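G., before I forget:
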Amino acid sequence: MKFFLDTADLAEIEEAASWGALAGVTTNPSLYAKIGGKLDDFHNHMKRICDIVGPDCPVSAESVAMTRDEIVADGRKLAEIAPNIVVKIPTMVEGLAATHTLAAEGIPVNMTLCFSVPQALLAARAGARYISPFIGRFDDISEDGLEQVGNIVTAINNYDFTANTANGEQVEIIAASVRSANHVTQCALMGADIATVPFGVLKKMVQHPLTDRGLDSFMKDWEKVANA
Ligand code: E4P
């Protein structure tokens, strides 16, 4: 499983990148608003993220257009920001049509706000490079977000979607709307390719109380050695 950071916060991205386990970044309009982002600085901000993570890490930048022609125009402009930009497009009819056009032009698309197997299969057929099923928001309406991710992984891997990728890899499933380290565990066991996680969850993924306890006892015993 690869890990993406789900944020538009440059300091968080810099810190996570320094840990050596960051494979990409996803953003959305809410995350950009959360950091006080301004409309006319949006493309520059996405460029700054691309520069931090480097050319091998995909950075999802979301289109807020609602018609296929506008999404395609938006997507083409976003793709000009950097070679590692992935255009994030909501799962809807206009989004599928735009994905079909952009994918044919070699522009990778992350189809977002995906909540069902049929949506994921349509996204893959339309040419999406990544598909993002949401866990937390599904749980929020008393559905089982993890079960849905598992179903989507199984359904997508029942078929060959390697034509969607430049290097002949299968389309990748990004587990999104991740709220806990346990979500990451369960998604890894189900074979999700990527988990995109908020920085708070990434920090929790490093931690374990037994690690803290073990470290504490090692430090105390080493003090005895030093004072012996
Ligand atoms: C990722 O691509 C999504 O934008 C994100 O994971 C949504 O997470 P949320 O449901 O916690 O806002």
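Strands lie at 2-6, 22-26, 59-62, 85-90, 109-114, 130-133, 172-175, 194-197. The domain at 2-227 is CATH 3.20.20.70 (TIM Barrel).

More on Monday.
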